[in-house]
């Protein structure tokens, strides 16, 4: 079932090769688009046998089972270890701001990354609440690679 803003258009008159288009497209636009698609049909519709130099027999997997083998379903093992949540501590004291990324293990905090920055003159004139907001932005800028597992 398609969303209400889309519809099917058949590429061939025999009802094969569906194309999904916007429902509000004018008939003329659909006809122009279908003409362009038909002109480039070789780029759109192909099979593995169309690739020169690769015999289709290479691309088929065959699993040979002996007669005494019985199919069974085994439970999948969990490969990923449990994830320990990260914790971010931050502070702004009117002169500088800092952020620490770490994890609690066995009731101890283990720092992973530390970032600090001295406030400029304009930031020093901010209220404490505004300085805390600056450190929130700063911590995400500095720690985003760790938070999104990029490092």
UniProtKB/TrEMBL annotation:
Keyword Magnesium applies: no
Keywords of this entry: Endonuclease, Hydrolase, Nuclease, Nucleotidyltransferase, RNA-directed DNA polymerase, Transferase
GO MF annotations in UniProt: endonuclease activity; hydrolase activity; RNA-directed DNA polymerase activity
Entry's transmembrane regions: none
Protein known as: Reverse transcriptase RNase H-like domain-containing protein
Organism expressing this protein natively: Solanum verrucosum
InterPro entries registered for this protein in UniProt: DNA/RNA_pol_sf, RT_RNaseH
UniProt lineage: Eukaryota, Viridiplantae, Streptophyta, Embryophyta, Tracheophyta
Pfam families: RT_RNaseH
Domain named Reverse transcriptase RNase H-like: residues: 85-149
């Amino acid at each position: 079932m398609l969303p209400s803003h889309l519809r099917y258009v058949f590429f061939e008159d025999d009802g094969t090769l569906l194309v999904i288009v916007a429902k509000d497209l004018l008939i003329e636009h659909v006809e122009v688009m279908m003409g362009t698609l038909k002109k480039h049909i070789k780029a759109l519709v192909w099979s593995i046998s169309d690739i020169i130099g690769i015999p289709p027999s290479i691309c088929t997997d065959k699993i040979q089972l002996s007669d005494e083998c019985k199919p069974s379903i085994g439970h999948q093992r969990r490969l990923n270890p449990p994830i320990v949540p990260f914790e971010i501590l931050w502070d702004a004291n009117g002169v500088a701001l800092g952020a620490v990324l770490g994890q609690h293990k066995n009731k101890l905090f283990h720092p992973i990354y530390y970032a600090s920055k001295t406030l400029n003159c304009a930031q020093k004139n901010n209220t404490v609440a505004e300085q805390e907001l600056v450190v929130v932005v700063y911590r995400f800028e500095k720690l985003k690679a760790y938070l999104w597992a990029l490092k």
